[in-house]
């Protein structure tokens, strides 16, 4: 299993990091997922700390409702 946590919420991010650290789960065993252009500061901070971050770019006719 390879969990992916999709959030921009700093409290959830911190909870996931604590959960993984307490259980000895390595940073490369899961990833954080975020939308392009939203909370780039968090994306960069996670990346700089060694976490995997996948950034999604919605496209197609329904891209705007996806963001909302």
Question: Describe it for me?
Answer:
The chain is of the alpha/beta class. It has a 3-stranded parallel beta sheet, covered by helices on one side. It has 3 helices and 3 strands; from the N terminus they run βαβαβα. Helix content is 40%, strand content 19%. It starts with a strand and ends with a helix.
**How many DSSP-defined strands?**
3
Rg: 13 Å
Q: Describe the main β-sheet briefly.
A: 3 strands, parallel
Task: Provide the helix percentage.
Answer: 25-40%
Strand content: 15-25%
Question: How far is the first residue's CA from the last residue's CA?
Answer: 30 Å
Shape: elongated
Content-based structural category: alpha/beta
Give the H and E element order. EHEHEH
Strand arrangement within the widest β-sheet reads 1-2-3
Average pLDDT score: 92
Low-confidence stretches: none
How many helices in DSSP terms? 3
What are the main properties of this structure?
single chain; 68 residues; alpha/beta; 3-stranded parallel beta sheet; 3 helices; 40% helix
